Amino acid sequence: MVADDQGREFVPPPTIVAERDKSERERLAICTDWSNHSTAWLMRHRLGLRAVLLDLMTGVEIKGDEAMIQALAEFSKRNASHVKGILNLTIPLSESPVWILGQFLWQLGLSTESRRPFLDGQRVRYYRLNTLDVEFIQKVLDYRLHQREDRESKRHQEQELQAAYAARMQSQYGVEQRGNDLYKNSPLHLCSPAPMPSSWPSTPPLNEDGSNNWEGMDTEPELSDSWWERVKYYARLAIERVEDGVDKVKELLSTLTSDERWGVMLEFEDIEPEKFGQLIAKAPDWVEWMA
Questions:
Q1: Which residues of 163-192 are buried (b: 16+ CB within 10 A; e: fewer)?
Q2: Does some domain include residue 112?
Q3: 217 lies in a domain?
Q4: Domain check: are 140 and 235 in the same one?
């Protein structure tokens, strides 16, 4: 629980929900029709849906006359216009609590099944979650958790590689690795190609005899001509993969270092500006791939 300036307490959405809203607003800066996942989460929290789901997910059966089911239905009817505006669900005032609960479950990809045993000489209907839906939802949740952990692990690995690369450049050549900072405010598709970072290889001036051997320190192979050859090679592969879809290009770039990714995109834009335009039109958030 947190309190606002007036001392009123409210429950903030989970970090993952808030971050989803934040990333959507950063990715679609000129859009005003965002999904508002935090608002939807808060509405479901106010409905008491989380408490109901926790019971149902453990196999609890309901009849519809339970206090929390009744409270959910009454709150939904009192705030039908808000439920419609936020969750896009229409709540008729004449419907039963179980029917109303079913609408919220349906929106989450769940459904119920029922049985009618005898109770005190009468048949009473009991509802519980469809077991197949529960199994499927659990697999989806596990998969998403694994994906988040995998992305976080890759992010840490990338940071460690960049730090090691920067340290090596500093110790060997006395220059700092600028990496993504160079492009943070200047996406390639919005401006002309930016100058190379000082840590990238450059061609020395020619001697009078036409050679470029100044008898200086030899550059490591991966930081000289072979670096650009590698970049040009992967740029050609990226161009070929545009026809196969954005995910194929992203998959290819994920195997490269941050500097190599930027180099590939520079080369891509330079030799195939038309296809480069097609790529960024399909993936406006491509700059995020460079991190």
A1: eebbeebeeeeeeebbbeeebeeeebeeee
A2: yes
A3: no
A4: no
Q: What is the spatial distance between Cα 85 and Cα 99, in angstroms, rounded to a whole number?
A: 19
39-43, 168-172, 189-193, 278-282: lowest mean pLDDT where? 189-193
| Domains in the chain, number | 3
> 12 and 99: one domain?
yes
In a domain, 200, yes or no: no
Q: Which residues pair with 114 in a beta bridge?
A: 127
Q: Both tokens of residue 77?
A: 């009817």
Q: What is the pLDDT of residues 204-254, one digit of tens each?
A: 444 445 444 444 434 443 444 567 778 888 888 888 888 888 888 888 888
Query: Residue 116's domain spans which residues?
Result: 2-129
* Partners of 9 in beta bridges: 3
Q: What are phi and psi of 257, to 5 degrees?
A: -80, 170
Q: Which of 64-73, 89-98, 221-230 has the lowest mean pLDDT?
A: 221-230
**Strand bridging mode 118-119 / 2-3:** unpaired
